[in-house]
Design brief:
Length: about 260
C-alpha cells in the first residue's frame, strides 16, 4: 500500500477510535506490549556497530552489545586517542581513562524487558495514543501525540522499531531518536540517530552495522580484561563531544 493510502486508512481508524486510546480500552496490557516489542527482535542476541558523528569528522565509537552487557571503544583518527569501557545497563564496570565514562549512546535502543525498563525511566504506561511520526503510523506510550515534553516512547506501529525515547534524569531531559530504518537479516536497524541531553545541542550520528549475532564472546564484556589490558591508563584525550557526554551522560537516576 502506498504511504499516502496508508495514511488515509490510518486516519480513518483514528477517527473511529479517537486520536487518543485509553490504556484499558484498545492499548495492549504491559505484558502483551512487552511481548509484541520483543517479538520484533526475537533472535537478535548480540550485535556490533560503529557510530560516526555528523559534526565531528574522524571521531567514531564502536559498540558491542549482548543483552544488557556492552563494550564501547572511542577513537579519534587525528590523534589515535582511544577510550574504552564496559558495563551492564546504565552501570560502568571498568573504563580507561579512569573516572566517569559516558554511557553508550545505543544503551536503550534494544533492551530486555523493554516496557519494564521504560517504566523505570518514568514512562507512564497508563497513557497511550496512536498518531503519525514522520508521516508513518506510530504508537505512543506515556504521552498524547501533541505532548513533546513528557517521558515517552514512540514506536513504528507496524515494525515496533524504536523511534523516540524521552525521559528525565535528575531533572534533565534526555531524548534518543532513531531514523532511516532498514531491514537486515530479518531485523529493523536504524541508520541515523540523535541524542539530546538538556539544553545542549543534539549529538547527531550515523550507524554502520558490522555484525549481527556475532558479538557473543564473553571476554569482550569482561571488566577484568579491560583493567588488565589498560592497566597503564594510557588512554588519550578525545574531542569535546566525548568529554561533554562523559560529564552529562554518565549515570541514570530517573526523575524530575
Amino acid at each position: 500500500m502506498h504511504r499516502s493510502q496508508q495514511k488515509i486508512v490510518f486516519l480513518l481508524i483514528l477517527l473511529l477510535l479517537g486520536t487518543s486510546v485509553p490504556a484499558g480500552a484498545f492499548v495492549p496490557e504491559q505484558g502483551e506490549l512487552d511481548a509484541n516489542v520483543q517479538a520484533a527482535y526475537r533472535g537478535l542476541k548480540s550485535w556490533k556497530a560503529t557510530l560516526s558523528f555528523d559534526d565531528v569528522p574522524g571521531l567514531s565509537v564502536r559498540y558491542w552489545f549482548m543483552g544488557r552487557k556492552w563494550r564501547q571503544q572511542w577513537t579519534a583518527a587525528d590523534s589515535n586517542a582511544t577510550a574504552v569501557s564496559v558495563g551492564v545497563g546504565p552501570k560502568v564496570l571498568a573504563a580507561c581513562p579512569g573516572g566517569a565514562a559516558p554511557l553508550p549512546i545505543m544503551l536503550y535502543w534494544q533492551t530486555p524487558d523493554p516496557v519494564g525498563i521504560w517504566r523505570q525511566l518514568g514512562v507512564d504506561n497508563a497513557t497511550a495514543a496512536f498518531s503519525f511520526c514522520e508521516e508513518a503510523p506510530c504508537f505512543i506510550l506515556g504521552a498524547e501525540p501533541e505532548d513533546a515534553n513528557s517521558a515517552q516512547v514512540r514506536l513504528n506501529n507496524e515494525t515496533k522499531a524504536l523511534l523516540l525515547l524521552r525521559f528525565y534524569n535528575q531533572g534533565v531531559p534526555i531524548q534518543f531518536s532513531f531514523q532511516d530504518y532498514a531491514t537486515r537479516k530479518g531485523f529493523e536497524f536504524p541508520g541515523k540517530g540523535i541524542l539530546a541531553v538538556g539544553e545542549q545541542p543534539g549529538v547527531r550520528f550515523s550507524i554502520q552495522w558490522d555484525e549481527i549475532n556475532q558479538a557473543g564472546d564473553a571476554g569482550l564484556y569482561s571488566p577484568e580484561k579491560v583493567n588488565s589490558e589498560y592497566s597503564d591508563g594510557n588512554c588519550g584525550a578525545l574531542p569535546p563531544v566525548f568529554q561533554r557526554l562523559r560529564t552529562s551522560f554518565n549515570s541514570i537516576a530517573p526523575g524530575r
